[in-house]
Design goal:
The chain is mainly beta and 174 residues long. It has 2 domains: 1-73, no CATH class; 96-173, RNA polymerase II/Efflux pump adaptor protein, barrel-sandwich hybrid domain (OB fold (Dihydrolipoamide Acetyltransferase, E2P)). It is 7% helix and 32% strand. The chain has a 4-stranded antiparallel beta sheet, with no helix packed on it. The chain has a 4-stranded antiparallel beta sheet with strand order 9-8-6-11, with no helix packed on it. It has a two-stranded antiparallel sheet with strand order 1-2. The longest helix is centred in the first third of the chain and has 13 residues, at 4-16. The chain is elongated and about 50 Å long.
Length: 174
């Protein structure tokens, strides 16, 4: 049987990801979540501002458990053009190794809040060096560097939801 906080966590993770449909069955209880796709219409050529019509999320189906469906997102309006800040120097990623997420979950740079990050740009790593944690369903999975080299760039923010195969770090291999 699923606990209500587990169902809420699943809803939160699915809502923040690009996953459109999710189903899990455990001990005879089944949770099925399907996202409804938003419809995007384009205005006439004179004013090109997309209008998004949110569609309410499908209810969660679980026996003997009631979960609150996430609120439908507010309509998105295109903002007027804003002058961008000067960009940081571009990093040539073609010859760099990408450490990618092996799963969907939440990215953490350190073992605990308030502790130093596993690695910073400029740090040397070896194949078995832990570089971060990806939390999925309350399991904290240590992600290793896989290569020998130097961390060039961290590509995601601490606490950010990451997708399967999403690059997390760029490493200059030796």
């Amino acid at each position: 049987m699923f606990k209500i906080h587990e169902i809420r966590e699943i809803i939160k993770l699915i809502d923040q990801s690009s996953i459109q449909e999710f189903e899990v069955e455990m001990d005879g209880a089944k949770v099925s979540i399907k996202k409804a796709a938003a419809v995007v219409e384009q205005a006439p050529a004179a004013s090109v501002q997309p209008v998004v019509h949110p569609v309410a999320a499908a209810p969660v189906q679980a026996p003997a458990a009631v979960a609150e469906a996430p609120a439908a997102p507010a309509p998105v309006q295109a903002a007027p053009a804003v002058q961008a800040a000067p960009a940081a120097p571009a990093v040539d990623e073609s010859n760099l190794h990408k450490i990618v997420s092996p799963m969907v979950g939440t990215f953490y740079r350190s073992p605990e809040p308030g502790k130093p990050a596993y690695v910073q740009p400029g740090d040397k790593v070896t194949p078995n060096k832990v570089v971060c944690i990806v939390e999925a369903m309350k399991l904290f999975n240590e992600i290793e560097a896989e290569v020998t080299g130097e961390i060039v760039k961290v590509l995601v923010e601490d606490g950010q939801l990451v997708e399967y195969g999403q690059p997390l770090f760029l490493v200059k291999t030796e």
